């Protein structure tokens, strides 16, 4: 049975939302939990119940380790029995690439299917492979499989990333955790998820310094401890989606379980748009009358506004009272496949290279549309909340990759949203 999201727009949002744990942190930290050498168990808390996490757990199980997941808590224990990451599983999520570093560090050998994930432009793994090669991994790619072997042990190295890739930074941190000596990663990504991974590795006995800066140093160790509990950070992208939903629909919504510093780039943008944001220790109150000002913004690596929020920000631009908004994405060159769907709803969008120019003062109208990645579908859901009439959105499977129970959370705020099955 196919599923569809049905949204009737025009409802104000009021109430509270508990933001779940970070998808991107969860995937990296699950990989880190596999580095243990003392036989202990690593328990991760605040893990979102999403399909990407389920696939990551399936990969870990396929490699021979024990994994249990219940009520936002995952425990990882046991030993690797295989170095083969199944191609079918690897192709489902981008996070499968982390096993390049983990298996190289722990087993000295790896065979991993090419990573999957959203089709949002060029996302090569050559940065990963170049860094691992400097650490002593002999890698080659053949028929969609990455094969690698370490002659003795991963060696210390100084690695410059030609782009501050979050995935490559995580992968090299994971590999360096059990390498010989110190590994220095220059031009490293600075995202909060990198800091979270660094904190977990430190708790496991790995010396990590500089996480959150563009120069990270990891001192490898022969003993990576288990027997720890670690709570991952909240998902700043989920928080952003609910903040933008409140901005465009109007209303008053408090978001709990957030880290203000992680959300401040978006908070600043919302303020420019005329949205009132009240900050607390671990929550923010979003208050909007739905009358938004046009704006200019560049989506960029942290501490900029996250590229993962670009589609949602485009919907917000369409909902401004008038004038021209400009959005430039400096990260992904092809994260614009949702634009034609918004045009079907009445949005006035010009697309030139990595730039969008969006005219406000238009009324969106409901229709049948489809999204082909996590962030596109969540943005189309936001458009449906703002549109006149009923919007039906295909792509529920993508939504479930990144947002736990988003339809139920929106209903609690007063939105008219349901996921229903369609007969074939």
What is the topology?
Layout: E1 2-8, E2 13-18, H1 23-32, E3 42-45, H2 51-62, E4 66-70, E5 73-77, E6 84-85, H3 87-90, H4 98-106, E7 109-113, H5 126-134, E8 137-142, E9 145-150, E10 158-160, H6 166-176, E11 182-186, H7 192-203, E12 207-209, E13 215-219, E14 228-231, H8 236-249, E15 251-256, H9 260-272, E16 276-279, E17 283-288, E18 296-299, H10 310-318, E19 324-329, H11 339-344, E20 348-352, E21 355-359, E22 368-370, H12 374-386, E23 390-394, H13 396-402, H14 406-412, E24 416-422
Work out the number of β strands. Answer: 24
Shape: elongated
Helical stretch tally: 14
The helix/strand class is alpha/beta
| Amino- and carboxy-terminal Cα gap | 6 Å
Percent of residues in beta strands: 25-35%
Low-pLDDT stretches are: 118-123
Major sheet: arrangement of strands: 22-23-1-24
Helical residue percent band: 25-40%
Biggest pleated sheet: 4 strands, mixed
Main features:
alpha/beta, 4-stranded mixed β-sheet, 424 residues
């Amino acid at each position: 049975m196919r599923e569809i999201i049905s949204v009737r727009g025009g409802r104000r949002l009021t109430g509270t939302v508990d933001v779940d744990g970070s998808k991107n942190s969860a995937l990296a930290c699950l990989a880190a939990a596999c580095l243990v050498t003392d036989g202990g168990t690593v328990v991760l808390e605040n893990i979102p119940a999403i399909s990407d996490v389920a696939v990551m757990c399936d990969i870990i199980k396929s490699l021979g380790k024990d994994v249990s997941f219940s009520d936002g808590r995952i425990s990882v224990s046991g030993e690797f029995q295989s170095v083969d990451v199944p191609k079918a599983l690897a192709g489902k999520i981008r996070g499968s690439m982390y096993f390049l570093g983990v298996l190289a560090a722990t087993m000295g050998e790896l065979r991993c299917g090419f990573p999957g994930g959203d089709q949002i432009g060029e996302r090569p793994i050559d940065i990963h492979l170049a860094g691992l090669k400097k650490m002593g991994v002999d890698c080659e790619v053949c028929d969609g499989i990455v094969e690698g072997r370490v002659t003795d042990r991963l060696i210390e190295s100084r690695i410059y990333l030609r782009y501050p890739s979050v995935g490559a930074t995580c992968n090299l941190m994971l590999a360096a955790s059990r390498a010989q000596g110190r590994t220095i990663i220059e031009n490293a990504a600075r995202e909060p998820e990198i800091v979270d991974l660094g904190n977990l590795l430190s708790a496991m006995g790995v010396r990590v310094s500089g996480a959150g800066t563009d120069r990270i140093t990891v001192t490898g160790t022969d003993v990576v401890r288990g027997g720890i509990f670690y709570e991952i950070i909240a998902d700043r992208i989920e928080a952003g989606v609910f903040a933008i939903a409140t901005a465009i629909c109007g209303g008053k919504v408090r978001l709990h379980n957030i880290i203000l510093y992680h959300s401040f780039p978006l908070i600043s943008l919302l303020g420019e748009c005329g949205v009132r944001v009240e900050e607390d220790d671990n929550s923010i109150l979003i208050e909007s009358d739905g009358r938004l000002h046009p704006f200019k913004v560049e989506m960029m690596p942290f501490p900029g506004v996250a590229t993962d929020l670009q589609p949602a920000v485009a919907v917000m631009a369409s909902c401004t009272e008038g004038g021209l908004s400009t959005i430039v994405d400096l990260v992904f060159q092809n994260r614009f496949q949702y634009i034609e769907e918004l045009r079907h709803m009445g949005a006035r969008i010009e697309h030139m290279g990595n730039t969008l120019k969006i005219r406000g003062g238009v009324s969106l109208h409901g229709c049948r549309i489809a999204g082909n990645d996590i962030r596109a579908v969540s943005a189309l859901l936001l458009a449906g909340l703002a549109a006149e009439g009923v919007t039906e959105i295909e792509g529920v499977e993508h939504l479930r990759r990144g947002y736990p129970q988003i339809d139920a959370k929106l209903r609690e705020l007063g939105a008219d949203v349901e996921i229903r099955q369609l007969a074939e």
